[in-house]
Amino acid sequence: MSARVRYWVDVSCFLSFLSSAISGFALWFARGDGYGRGHRLGFDYALSGIDRGFWLFIHDWSSIVIVVTLAIHLSFNWRWIVRMTREAFRRDTQQE
């Protein structure tokens, strides 16, 4: 696989993680159940002019993109993962 494709898979995975983390914190701080951080900090259902439904949409879809791009990333690097795992668990016969 070309380095350019690998690069864009990694970039999309990172950006998806970033948007999932930001939206997760926004949902965490803007909890609308009357209990918890959102209530104590004075936030309502909206944070930065964006309602809770949109934050949920961003959070859900960016999390799905993370899973897909991570699966692609792992499939690109599967041989390396197997090789390093075998090497890590191989008995060192020289020390015995």
Short description:
The protein is mainly alpha-helical and 96 residues long.
Element order: H for helix, E for strand: HHEEHH
Task: Report the span from N to C terminus.
Answer: 41 Å
Strand order of the largest sheet: 1-2
> What coarse outline follows from CA principal-axis ratios?
elongated
- Determine Rg (CA atoms, Å): 21 Å
Give the beta-strand count: 2
Q: Count of helices?
A: 4
Output mean pLDDT: 82
Helix content: over 70%
Q: What percentage of the residues does DSSP assign to strands (E)?
A: under 5%
> Low-confidence runs (pLDDT<50, min 5 residues)?
none
Structural class: mainly alpha
Summarize the main sheet. 2 strands, antiparallel
How would the blueprint of this fold be written?
Elements: H1 3-29, H2 37-41, E1 46-47, E2 50-51, H3 52-76, H4 78-89
Antiparallel strand pairs: 1-2
Helix pairs in contact: 1-3
In words, what does this structure look like?
The structure is a single chain. With 96 residues, this protein is mainly α. The chain has one domain (3-89). Helix content is 72%, strand content 4%. The protein has four helices and two strands. It has a two-stranded antiparallel sheet. Helix 1 packs antiparallel against helix 3 (52-76). The mean pLDDT is 82.
